Amino acid sequence: MNNICVKFLMKCEKPDLGEIVLRIFMRDDASLYDLQNHWYIIEAGKSFLKQRNFEAGLRHLDFINKQFLDFQSN
Predict the structure, then answer these.
(1) Percent of the chain clearing pLDDT 70 (strictly above)
(2) What phi and psi values does residue 15 have, to the nearest 5 degrees?
(3) What's the predicted TM-score (pTM) here?
(4) Sequence spans of domains, the chain
């Protein structure tokens, strides 16, 4: 249910609120990037792009691109 709620917040262009909701169910020291939570990072990137916040959107999607390049090299 938490993931569905976060995805709908992303579709409503509220990525900051989506991150807050997602962090409710995470450990305090956990990082979305260290956990490689790809679905969240992709949805956040698309949400930022819809808001015309190109810097944040491209930063999120570039992180995903680098992760998949690392997967291919290993």
Answers:
(1) 99
(2) -65, -30
(3) 0.74
(4) 2-73
